[in-house]
C-alpha cells in the first residue's frame, strides 16, 4: 500500500513538471488573419449582454524570437479591419475596410496593439503538438495581459468612444491542421489552419470622452474559423489575404523554467527519501 501511494504521489508531481519542461514557454511567434470570434460583452452593473456577431480576427505575437520584421516582442489582437471588396466607379479601391462586414466595424470590434511599448504585464507561450509522424499539426498560443493600455479599443456597442484599458486580456487557443516541420531547433508552419478551439476573455475599462460608454465591460468570446476576408479572398481589392506563420522551439530545445527545475529536485528528493524509509525485507 505504501508503494502504491508513493507511486501515485510522485507521478502526480512529475507529470505536470515533465509537461512544463517539454513545452516551450514564451519563445515563438504567431501571425495569422485566418480566425474569427463571436460572443458577448456585459457592462458591469447589471446591463443586458451585448452580442458581437461574427468578427474577423488578426493575431500577431512574437516573444524572444525575431522572425517578424518590425514586430519583435509584439502582442497584437485586433479585428482585421483593412480587407476590402469595394471599389469606386472607375474600379479603384475606395479605401481600407470598405465592404468589410465582419472585420471593420460593429459591436465587439477590438484592438490591443502593443508593438512592444508601453509594456504592461504580459505573459505568452507558444508550443506545437499533435505530431503525426510527418508534421506537427497543432499549435497552442496563450497571451495574458494586465492593465494593457497600448492602443486599446473595444466597441461596446458602437465604434466611437470605445478607447480604454484592458484590465485583463486572456487569449488561449489551439489551431489545428498545420504542417509544422522541425529544423535547426525550431518547429515552423506556414500553411493556413483548418480548425481552432479557444477563447478571448477579460475585462475592458472604457475611459473615452464619450462618458455614456464609460465603465467596466466583461467580455467572453469564442474563437472560430468564420472569417469574412478568407471567404472573399478572391474578391479583395488592395490588401490581399495574408499568409499565416507559426513558430516555437522544438520540445528538446525548450529551457526548463527555474520553478520546474526546483520541483523536479523536490520530486527526486522525495523519491530518494521514500526509498531510504522503505522497510527491509524480512
Can you give a write-up of this model?
The chain has three helices and 14 strands. With 282 residues, the protein is α+β, with helices and mostly antiparallel strands. It has two domains: 1-23 and 256-282; 26-253, no CATH class. Strands 1, 2, 3, 4, 5, 6, 7, 8, 9, 10, 11, 12, 13 and 14 form a 14-stranded antiparallel β-sheet that branches. A hairpin with a 4-residue loop joins strand 6 and strand 7 (136-148).
Fraction in helix: 10-25%
Gap from first CA to last CA = 17 Å
Number of strands: 14
What is the string of SSEs from the N terminus onward? HEEEEEEEEEEEEEHEH
Uncertain runs: 1-24, 256-282
Please state the overall shape, judged from the principal axes of the Cα atoms.
globular
**Mean pLDDT score:** 79
Provide key terms for this protein.
2 domains, 14-stranded antiparallel sheet, 282 residues, alpha+beta, single chain, 3 helices, disordered C terminus
In short:
The chain has 282 residues and is α+β, with helices and mostly antiparallel strands. It has helices at residues 2-22, 228-231, 258-277, and strands at residues 28-43, 50-51, 55-63, 75-78, 110-114, 121-131, 136-148, 153-154, 164-176, 181-183, 186-189, 195-206, 215-224, 245-249.
Amino acid at each position: 500500500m505504501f508503494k502504491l501511494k508513493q507511486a501515485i504521489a510522485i507521478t502526480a508531481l512529475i507529470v505536470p513538471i515533465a509537461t512544463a519542461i517539454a513545452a516551450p514557454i514564451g519563445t515563438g511567434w504567431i501571425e495569422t488573419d485566418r480566425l474569427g470570434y463571436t460572443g458577448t460583452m456585459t457592462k458591469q452593473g447589471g446591463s443586458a449582454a451585448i452580442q458581437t456577431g461574427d468578427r474577423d480576427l488578426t493575431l500577431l505575437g512574437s516573444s524572444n524570437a525575431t522572425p517578424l520584421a518590425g514586430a519583435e516582442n509584439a502582442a497584437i489582437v485586433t479585428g482585421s479591419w483593412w480587407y476590402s471588396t469595394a471599389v469606386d466607379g472607375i474600379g479603384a479601391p475606395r479605401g481600407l475596410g470598405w465592404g468589410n462586414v465582419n472585420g471593420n466595424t460593429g459591436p465587439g470590434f477590438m484592438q490591443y496593439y502593443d508593438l512592444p511599448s508601453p509594456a504592461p504585464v504580459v505573459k505568452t507561450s507558444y508550443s506545437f503538438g499533435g505530431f503525426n509522424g510527418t508534421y506537427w499539426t497543432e499549435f497552442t498560443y496563450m497571451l495574458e495581459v494586465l492593465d494593457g493600455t497600448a492602443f486599446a479599443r473595444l466597441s461596446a456597442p458602437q465604434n466611437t468612444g470605445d478607447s480604454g484599458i484592458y484590465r485583463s486580456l486572456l487569449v488561449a487557443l489551439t489551431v489545428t491542421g498545420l504542417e509544422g516541420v522541425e529544423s535547426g531547433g525550431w518547429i515552423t508552419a506556414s500553411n493556413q489552419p483548418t480548425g481552432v478551439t479557444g477563447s478571448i476573455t477579460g475585462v475592458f475599462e472604457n475611459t473615452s470622452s464619450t462618458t455614456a460608454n464609460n465603465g467596466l465591460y466583461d467580455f467572453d468570446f469564442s474563437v472560430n474559423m468564420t472569417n469574412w476576408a478568407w471567404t472573399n479572398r478572391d474578391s479583395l481589392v488592395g490588401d490581399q489575404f495574408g499568409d499565416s506563420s507559426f513558430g516555437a522551439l522544438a520540445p528538446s530545445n525548450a529551457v526548463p523554467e527555474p520553478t520546474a527545475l526546483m520541483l523536479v529536485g523536490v520530486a527526486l528528493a522525495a523519491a530518494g527519501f521514500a526509498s531510504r524509509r522503505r522497510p527491509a525485507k524480512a
